[in-house]
Amino acid sequence: MAQITELASLLFFLGLHNPALAASADGPAYSAAWNTVIVLIVFAATVGSAVLNFAAIRQWDRNWGLVSGLPLLGLLIWCGIILLGKSIDGNSHSLWQLEIFAWAMINMIYMVTAMTAKRMFAKKDAEKSPKA
To answer: Taking the chain, what is the end-to-end CA distance rounded to the nearest angstrom?
Structure first.
């Protein structure tokens, strides 16, 4: 029973209980289910996007690994800002799901750009290296 209470308070803290949606015609059960689906989609997109960063950190050399790790630092800072804002005022960051999803999409663009730049520099280095 204590675990259910903890889960309910966590969902409330994350903003899954939205009073504006709870007042809809379908009632609170519909809005809670819909918000849960949205949160799961956002987390799936964020994890999928962050996996690119972790793979690049692991496989690329040190400098390019640092370049690919910068968005993760940005995500960590932004999540801290969201959590701090939600703890101070429950009405702040009411669209936090959209904020995190936007990070995931911007991170995808960033990582494609970083991968392209890395390939271009590697190609140039291969052209400049002495051939045996």
So the answer is: 72
